[in-house]
Specification:
By secondary structure, this protein is an alpha+beta fold. The chain is built from two helices and five strands. Bound molecules: zinc ion. Zinc ion binds next to loops.
Length: about 90
């Protein structure tokens, strides 16, 4: 099975966390995973950047406050991406 590093972005502060080795198994779009955030200095939910979930999508969600302080996503990813594309 192919190993690759995926970038993760903390949904609380919006900063990139340490990259994480992942197996090639596909996750759902914008998968959230508990990781240590060096900026928040605690474990937070971090969004996984992948083929179908880009940094641009994450920034859009973050700037539109789609995450609570506890790192819970409010609207569905697909809804947010649809909004993002309609704004263009
Ligand atoms: Zn953080």
């Amino acid at each position: 099975m192919q190993k690759e590093t995926h970038d993760f972005y903390c949904v609380v502060c919006g900063n990139k966390t340490l990259p994480c080795f992942r197996t090639g198994r596909l996750r759902e779009k914008g998968h959230l995973k508990k990781l240590w955030c060096p900026t928040c200095k605690k474990e937070t939910n971090c969004a996984e950047i992948s083929n179908n979930y880009t940094v641009e999508m994450f920034k859009y969600e973050f700037e539109h406050h789609n995450f609570t302080e506890d790192g819970i996503r409010i609207c569905k990813v697909d809804t947010m991406i649809k909004n993002m594309l309609e704004e263009k």
